[in-house]
Write a structure and sequence with these properties.
- By secondary structure, the protein is an all-alpha fold.
- It is built from twelve helices and no strands.
- It is globular.
- The chain starts with a helix and ends with a helix.
Length: 286
């Protein structure tokens, strides 16, 4: 037992050290610097809560938070609906199931920046050509307004992550005992009733995991936002991560940006923990 304990800590120590150096220590230092006038090199003055008071008066930051929340709510709903739908399709006994799984998952392998530029070309060039050819004015000038920029980001993110969420649901769907499905069929339950009363309760843990992943990812998006809209027009599609980076590196207000990052961390952590707690509670009730 003692040798096992030694080997356990021997293997765990590099992970703990890496986590501390990359995550914990920088977070603590960043939290401390958020109370100063740190410019990236020196912090000569302690400002107290001045940066935190100032950020709530920053209209651009508040608008970015509101835009990010709206984007996250829509994206989380669409991703989980689409991911579960794709999982239900590929878990049926089809000859093309493995091929379809590969096709649906492939967009997740494309980098965010490249994906943004690809969809920028589609939304601007391809949509304009289709709109001009078919006389559909709604397709012209995509990404030039706040509304179309918002839905462009939603479409991009959903297309990229749906296959990844599909894999999570597949893992749980394949663990559902066939006896339960067969028993429901014998009792006369139709497809919808079998899904509602048998399948969905048993994949509830997958819903908890998927909700957490999609929620945290949606809030932290930066590269897709940068390459697709770059926050335009007039910073109206600027998400929180981009606004923080802009404050830090374009405006050179490192401490102010760090204060925004702390508030952003608290917001995301609170929502994620509340969501996990609520979904876990529902799992027990089911």
């Amino acid at each position: 037992m003692r040798n096992r304990d030694v080997s356990f800590w021997l293997f765990l120590t590099p992970v703990i050290l890496s986590l501390s150096l990359v995550v914990i220590i920088p977070f603590v230092y960043g939290f401390i610097f958020s109370f100063t006038n740190w410019n990236g090199l020196t912090a000569s003055k302690f400002l107290g809560f001045s940066n935190y008071i100032k950020l709530f008066q920053d209209a651009e930051f508040v608008n970015a938070i509101w835009f990010t929340i709206q984007f996250s709510v829509v994206t989380v709903i669409l991703l989980n609906i689409l991911g579960l739908s794709l999982a239900l399709i590929v878990t049926r006994k089809l000859k093309s199931s493995n091929f379809l799984r590969t096709i649906f998952f492939m967009p997740n392998l494309i980098g965010g920046l490249i994906l943004g530029f690809i969809w920028q070309f589609i939304f601007i060039s391809v949509f304009d050509d289709i709109g001009s050819a078919l006389g559909i004015e709604a397709l012209n000038g995509w990404l030039s307004t706040t509304t179309t920029g918002f839905w462009g980001l939603v479409i991009l993110t959903t297309w990229q992550m749906a296959g990844y969420i599909m894999i999570i649901y597949i893992a749980y769907l394949q663990n559902i005992p066939n006896e339960l499905i067969e028993a429901a069929e014998i009792d006369g339950a139709n497809s919808f009733q079998r899904f509602r009363n048998v399948t969905f309760p048993l994949v509830a843990p997958a819903f908890t995991v998927s909700m957490f992943l999609t929620l945290s990812t949606s809030f932290k998006i930066y590269d897709q936002n940068l390459s697709l809209t770059n926050g335009g027009p007039h910073n109206s599609t600027q998400m929180v991560a981009m606004e923080i980076v802009k404050t830090a590196f374009s405006e050179n207000q490192m401490a102010f940006a760090q204060a925004k990052a702390v508030i952003f961390f608290i917001l995301v952590a609170t929502i994620a923990i509340a969501q996990v707690y609520y979904n876990k509670k529902r799992e027990v009730e089911m």
